[in-house]
Design a protein that fits this description.
alpha+beta
Length: 64
């Protein structure tokens, strides 16, 4: 049987923690940063947990 391939777009956007949580980066930190407060851009730099509704699909695409 052939091996299953990991979805390339998904592996660039999500990562799994040691405990199995699915983490993602937040939107709004790519451009137009001069108009956003530094406090907001620092907050957006942190990874957040993916919503529970999407976890099952993301894990499947990652091959986990």
């Amino acid at each position: 049987m052939p091996k299953n391939k990991t979805h390339s777009g998904t592996k660039k956007r999500f990562r799994l923690t040691g405990s199995g949580k699915v983490m993602r980066e937040q939107a709004n930190r790519r451009h137009l940063l001069e108009g956003k407060p530094s406090k907001r851009t620092r907050a957006l730099a942190l990874d957040v947990e993916t919503s529970s509704a999407d976890v099952k699909k993301v894990k499947r695409l990652l091959g986990k």
